[in-house]
């Protein structure tokens, strides 16, 4: 915990209170209000947590005004270009880039946990074939403690470590199984001879009837998409995981809670919603109609893939994703992809529009990811499951960090109550 460097004064009803000011290594100073209610008998009010720090963290830093994203201090652009997903997983989990031998050992541990308990195959069969893969993932991941009870005790550091590796290793297998189940194809077992991204592609696209060769272009693009989604500070789903964990819930239940929260179209569900929106727009000449709807206060429509609670500049992930979209479509020979053309023109027209400029609405990570994923052969229903499997390491890293604070306690917000004050019960005959 950073020490209070100075204090702020708060005066309420003529009485002054000193609030310690905590100094970060980067970002704004933080007012420590932990004792405010005990001292002054008042709550603070911040329903969307727009000005509230929920924790003390060393994992990821975002500067929304400058469009900066650092993982353990390393810029996302450098990691996307020079690193790969499992190395980024190691960095997020343990705080430093690994030596070659440490990375080899980590990759080997993950590789050897990629299979799931065979009984889980039957678990899938309880779902309808047309279940959204996110529904299946929430259910299956939430039930993992029933299959891996030997790594569910959050008070045992060794079990926390095993659960971490198991989830990073098995989420791609579970996501691929959810996909295969939804299209009526047999599950494909993981292969230890393939790297993480190639293994996922093989589990999704290979069939027993013929050999499947993983395209290295797709594998590199897949790995980069995993890296770009790995962690993002205290977003809604990460905050959900932290809150669920604060009650002592088992790690699998906490990650399932994160998956459920991520599913929303305002959050991780935006990649599916964005591609569906681009397809609804269909052609460049219809873009003004949709921009007008996005600006219309009486129309609930929003440009999916645009805007962000923190970024008031370009989301640095979107910049990398846009470059990757150009590369992948070009390398796949998908010339003049109409959806990509609509996306690029929509971005241009929106960024030229004063409404979006004034409200500092820029493309976010979800704006271009769907275009790449569709070009790779994924249905839109698999976009958010891919976001979820990528973000599992971020959720787990943040979940593990909580245990490093011996003072961590159950999260229990208060409220601004504006309901009825106390009144007596009225018998039904007198109402
Ligand atoms: C992710 O938090 C994270 O880090 C999340 C994430 C991660 O990696 O974990 O980055 C992943 O969730 C990215 C965001 C994906 N969601 C979308 O693309 C959905 C579309 N975007 C929005 O719904 C919205 O921008 C949010 C939810 C992302 C952010 O909403 P805020 O911060 O609560 O902002 P707001 O809703 O208060 O909007 C501010 C203003 C409003 O207008 P006024 O009421 O002030 O007049 O901007 C407008 C909004 O109407 N606005 C939009 C808009 N987003 C905000 N208008 C049109 N289109 C949009 N997309």
From TrEMBL:
Signal peptide: none annotated. Pathway: Carbohydrate metabolism; tricarboxylic acid cycle; isocitrate from oxaloacetate: step 1/2. It catalyses: oxaloacetate + acetyl-CoA + H2O = citrate + CoA + H(+). SUPFAM superfamilies: Citrate synthase. PROSITE patterns: CITRATE_SYNTHASE. One of its GO terms (biological process) is tricarboxylic acid cycle. InterPro entries: Citrate_synth-like_lrg_a-sub, Citrate_synth-like_sm_a-sub, Citrate_synthase, Citrate_synthase_AS, Citrate_synthase_bac-typ, Citrate_synthase_sf, Citrate_synthase_typ-I. The active site is at 308, 366. CDD domains: EcCS_like (cd06114). Pfam families: Citrate_synt (PF00285). Keywords: Acyltransferase, Transferase, Tricarboxylic acid cycle. One of its GO terms (molecular function) is citrate synthase activity. GO terms for cellular component: cytoplasm. PANTHER family: CITRATE SYNTHASE (PTHR42871). Belongs to the citrate synthase family. This is Citrate synthase. The gene is gltA.
């Amino acid at each position: 915990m950073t020490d209070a460097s100075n204090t702020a004064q708060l005066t309420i009803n003529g009485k002054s209170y000193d609030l310690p000011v905590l100094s970060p290594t980067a970002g704004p100073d933080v007012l420590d209000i932990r004792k405010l209610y005990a001292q002054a008998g008042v709550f603070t009010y911040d329903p969307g947590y727009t000005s509230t720090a929920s924790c003390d963290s060393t994992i990821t830093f975002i500067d929304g005004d400058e469009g900066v994203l650092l993982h353990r201090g390393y810029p996302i652009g450098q990691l996307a270009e020079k690193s790969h997903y499992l190395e980024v997983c190691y960095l997020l989990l343990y705080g430093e880039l690994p030596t070659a031998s440490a990375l080899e050992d980590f990759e080997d541990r993950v590789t050897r946990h990629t299979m799931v308990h065979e009984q889980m195959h039957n678990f899938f069969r309880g779902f309808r074939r047309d279940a959204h893969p996110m529904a299946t993932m929430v259910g299956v991941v939430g039930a993992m403690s029933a299959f891996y009870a030997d790594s569910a005790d959050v008070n045992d550091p060794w079990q926390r470590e095993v659960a971490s590796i198991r989830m990073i290793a098995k989420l791609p297998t579970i996501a691929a199984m959810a996909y295969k189940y939804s299209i009526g194809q047999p599950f494909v077992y993981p292969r230890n001879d393939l790297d993480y991204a190639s293994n996922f592609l093989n589990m999704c696209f290979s069939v027993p009837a013929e050999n499947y060769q993983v395209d290295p272009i797709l594998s590199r693009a897949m790995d980069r998409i995993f890296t770009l989604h790995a962690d993002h500070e205290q977003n809604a789903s990460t905050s959900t995981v932290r809150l669920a964990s604060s009650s002592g819930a088992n790690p699998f239940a906490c990650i399932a809670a994160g998956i459920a929260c991520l599913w929303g179209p305002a959050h991780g569900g935006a990649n599916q919603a964005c591609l569906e929106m681009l397809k609804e727009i269909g052609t460049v000449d219809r873009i003004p109609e949709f921009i007008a709807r996005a600006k219309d206060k009486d129309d609930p429509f929003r440009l999916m893939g645009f805007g962000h609670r923190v970024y008031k500049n370009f989301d640095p992930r979107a910049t990398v994703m846009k470059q990757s979209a150009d590369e992948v479509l070009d390398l796949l020979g998908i010339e003049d992809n109409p959806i990509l053309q609509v996306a690029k023109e929509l971005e241009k027209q929106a960024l030229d529009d004063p409404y979006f400029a004034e409200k500092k609405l820029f493309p976010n990570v979800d704006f271009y990811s769907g275009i790449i994923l569709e070009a790779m052969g994924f249905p839109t229903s698999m976009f958010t499951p891919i976001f979820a499997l990528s973000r599992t390491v971020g959720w787990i890293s943040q979940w593990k960090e909580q245990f490093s604070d011996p003072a961590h306690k159950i999260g229990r917000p208060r409220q601004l109550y504006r309901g009825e004050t106390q009144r007596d019960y009225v018998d039904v005959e007198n109402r």
